[in-house]
Prior knowledge:
The chain is an all-alpha fold. Helices cover about 65% and strands about 0% of the residues.
Amino acid sequence: xxxxxxxxxxxxxIEKKTGVKMNDILRLxxxxxxxxxxxxxxxxxxxxxxxxxxxxxxxxEKEDMIVKAILNNNMPTDLNSLTKMLK
Length: 87
């Protein structure tokens, strides 16, 4: 069974679980391919785009923490650490 955008069934499962269309995810990923993650404005824009796609609000304090971690190359390397950081 194929999903609406004729992609791999895995994409359909991702769309169902996240509520985010795969085309939107791929468009975001494409726009990030040349993004400068050392630029604070770029990092904030990316955080806001991801939050908008996910339909979530990112409080200013959390955004600041994420920006600082990205700019300082201090991002978690595993899902468990990332989950702790975002809580």
